[in-house]
Amino acid sequence: xxxxxxxxxxxxxxxxxxxxxxxxxxxxxxxxxxxxxxxxxxxxxxxxxxxxxxxxxxxxxxxxxxxxxxxxxxxxxxxxxxxxxxxxxxxxxxxxxxxxxxxxxxxxxxxxxxxxxxxxxxxxxxxxxxxxxxxxxxxxxxxxxxxxxxxxxxxxxxxxxxxxxxxxxxxxxxxxxxxxxxxxxxxxxxxxxxxxxxxxxxxxxxxxxxxxxxxxxxxxxxxxxxxxxxxxxxxxxxxxxxxxxxxxxxxxxxxxxxxxxxxxxxxxxxxxxxxxxxxxxxxxxxxxxxxxxxxxxxxxxxxxxxxxxxxxxxxxxxxxxxxxxxxxxxxxxxxxxxxxxxxxxxxxxxxxxxxxxxxxxxxxxxxxxxxxxxxxxxxxxxx
Amino acid sequence: xxxxxxxxxxxxxxxxxxxxxxxxxxxxxxxxxxxxxxxxxxxxxxxxxxxxxxxxxxxxxxxxxxxxxxxxxxxxxxxxxxxxxxxxxxxxxxxxxxxxxxxxxxxxxxxxxxxxxxxxxxxxxxxxxxxxxxxxxxxxxxxxxxxxxxxxxxxxxxxxxxxxxxxxxxxxxxxxxxxxxxxxxxxxxxxxxxxxxxxxxxxxxxxxxxxxxxxxxxxxxxxxxxxxxxxxxxxxxxxxxxxxxxxxxxxxxxxxxxxxxxxxxxxxxxxxxxxxxxxxxxxxxxxxxxxxxxxxxxx
Lengths: 383, 299
Description:
heterodimer; A: alpha+beta; Rossmann fold; CATH 2.40.50.140; 2 domains; 22% helix; B: MetI-like fold; 13 helices; 0% strand
């Protein structure tokens, strides 16, 4: 696998959009309670064949518990889990067509790389010659043939990760569960491995379910993302849907960076709303997907990259324009991040691409600036 | 810099236990070694001196290996060593058989319950070892608690001969040394990463298979440590065979006692203990080697 072989995204309609497609995994009203603690509450989710599905959430959101229920390590308190149409709720892990890659990798320390990878096949009772063949092929695939005789403790983090992946793929499971697969790797290796994972998934056609707390990881990897919070799904959708059309404040805040301005709807007509915001100090406008009652409160949300910063007042009346002072400024090479203080004291985060090659900054600390965005870039969210 | 300073301190701190061992282990051993190459005499002390200052040159050293030759020529000692090794080995095996499930069970309990269960294992140490062994006489006697109970229940007509035989010795050793098997096993099993067990299950291993493939091999250091902690003291055990064993119970501890205090042949008795030490050094060296490799592996 190399970078030239980036996975091809299918052009046809996505499986979840086609009526009547049978999902590979059906999570039906699953709850899991540990004593008084609610880990997962009434989760409903369909995952389709060949998806690379991410479950995104903070610690304690219930994402790992959900994954462990798919693997069979936990039994749901209520609800059912179907895999390939068969009820798996009470099936023990060793009888499920599912394999898992553990966050700690959980490699057997007393077995060599080869023995670790072969273990699943050995338990399945596959003939010795076939085991040797398949293990050699799998090790080749993850580029670990050279280290086949080593013990896991003599491997680097990245190498262990590849062995763990090989071990979980060797039985060709219908479904591969990955618990924070990249968390233990350093940044450079993580980016590289991300593409490898995607390539491998495409090549083998196995459905992946990835649990992660890293929203960037979830965005780049996935066909779809489920954002979890307090044991519930807040939103399920493609990375684009979740990022650009978050359904509530939690999702908007958890996925990427976003600015919120507290506001009150004064009028709403034809999908266009007029909002009153003390924090903005001006009347704001936004397009609405669904009409809102005049007088209701909410949050106007704008992503930093949707905001334009300039020293002159920008033209055009389809834009919202606010004045402010640059309080802080960060230069990242490819982009710059500004923190702009509005007269109300509210801070807006703005990011801009550094398109022109110059060492001189056009906007400096304490500059009086205008920040503006297209009316269509802002969304209005509930509390 | 700070680390260097701490290292130096660590080295100094290590001197204390080493000095302790030197004084209270090596010195008595050298004395015993010295006596084992002397001749027995009827005197006080009952052996000849190592140096005869009246002679000159090499003749001054009065060392003899007759005592060791005697040990190898007299079949009695070979029998007694083998019998002691057998008794210690069977007891160790029984301790492992009983102790492993107990250690495994405790290690699988929720943390707040483990402390209490471990306390139960350690609690007998609060009572003198001698008293605890002595209490078994009251239990196993022909007129003891167990025989009386069985007779009262009508399970037996005649009292069973439970005491003054090898059976009683095994009971005594297993009872006394079981904690030494359980504690290192527990320490090992408690550290076992449960995700390894889940990984095995995930790859198709049932519970027993997981135990054989993962838990058992990974608990090997605990098994070895526990076995040595039982085997080594058991082989030289004196009190248990003396109190619970019969006249035909052959164990090295009793032979030692007899040589020292009945035959008053200190040189032969010393030779017996030096040979015993040599027998024990071998498994300990093996353990050191295995443990060193284990540490290397887990790094």
